[in-house]
Amino acid sequence: MKKIILLIDDDIDLLNSMASYLISEGFKTHITTNAENAIKNLKIIQPDLIIADIMMPNLDGYEMIKKIRSDKIWDQVPVIFLTAKGMTQDRIFGYNLGCNAYLIKPFYPEELISIINNIFKQIELWKQDINNNKQKTQNKKENPVFDSLTPKEYKVLLLVAKGYTNKEIAKQVNSSLRNIEKYVSRLLNKTKTRNRTELAKLTLLNYLNKQQGE
Questions:
Q1: Average pLDDT in the 116-137 region?
Q2: What is the pLDDT of residue 116?
Q3: Which residues are 80's β-sheet partners?
Q4: Which one, of 29, 35, 23, lies nearest residue 4 by Cα?
Q5: Are residues 118 and 158 in the same domain?
Q6: Mean pLDDT in the chain?
Q7: Which of 22, 62, 168, 204 has its CB 3.0 to 4.6 Å from that of 164, i.e. a possible disulfide?
């Protein structure tokens, strides 16, 4: 799906030029010369990124980004300031308000495209990190009991899952048959399973969840 870019500038010629170039690069665009109208129509436009001038009548770029960053629905939408205000303090002020990039007029269109692509790339990486962390957290929550097992209990558990009898397990871990029976009984209680078959299935499920979460 094509990314939607909202362009806001009181220079209509620049707007049309940028829109044509961005369209040729595979983006969808919406243009407006009025920041107030842009904010009112965010729900309709649903932009993936906003490029805005700073010096505009009625509502300038600084006030516009304040409104966007104060709205929970749109506070994560990236904003690029495209402006003739190139002083260091102007750029610092823009960054402090939450802009993602600052490009000084006149500019090379190729540089703008590079900035846009880099922003979208960073967003995708951020989303992947969040999804991976959620998956790992979910896997841990699904079977927290496995994290509480002692090394000896876990070793017995794996042997049960492989189909070893208590006698065979006792020989493998160099323990008495009576101790292994106690271990298996404790594992059944901890995992709330009714028999060795259910215990083996739960162990296999936990293993698969861990593999998917890595």
A1: 79
A2: 95
A3: 51, 101
A4: 29
A5: no
A6: 86
A7: 168
